[in-house]
């Protein structure tokens, strides 16, 4: 599932610049969705590769400043994954990053 969002407003006298974004996923209507990225995402898109076929989800995003201040939560974006799954394209260097961060290779 590729997620995209609009960048936060430019900094001004009251607001710091966005350092990155925190993405939260939950069930539709969930008042406390869980954070899915451990490190702020620097851009305005990511791929959530941990969704289930036929699943229903709701996503929200918050901007975070370099000092750790977070913005208000975005409007929720509900998503329905097809029961048979969407066609999966291979993730390449040109793809947005994974929402959960880069895959970690285990040591032999």
Describe the structure.
- The protein is mainly beta.
- The chain contains no helices and 6 strands.
- The strands form 2 sheets. A 4-stranded antiparallel beta sheet has the order 3-2-5-6, with no helix packed on it. It has a two-stranded antiparallel sheet with strand order 1-4.
- β2 (18-26) and β3 form a beta hairpin.
- The radius of gyration is 15 Å and the shape is globular.
- It starts with a strand and ends in a 28-residue tail after the last strand.
- The model is unreliable at 104-108 (pLDDT under 50).
Which descriptors apply to this entry?
single chain; 108 residues; mainly beta; 4-stranded antiparallel sheet; 6 strands; globular; disordered C terminus
Record the SSE blueprint:
Elements: E1 2-4, E2 18-26, E3 34-35, E4 45-47, E5 56-65, E6 77-80
Antiparallel strand pairs: 1-4, 2-3, 2-5, 5-6
**Strand line-up of the largest beta sheet:** 3-2-5-6
Measured on Cα atoms, how large is the radius of gyration?
A: 15 Å
Class based on secondary structure composition and strand pairing: mainly beta
CA-based shape: globular
Number of strands: 6
Order of helices and strands: EEEEEE
| Helix percent band | under 10%
The poorly predicted ranges are 104-108
The total count of helices amounts to 0
Q: Which range does the strand content fall in?
A: 25-35%
Mean pLDDT figure: 85
Largest sheet features? 4 strands, antiparallel
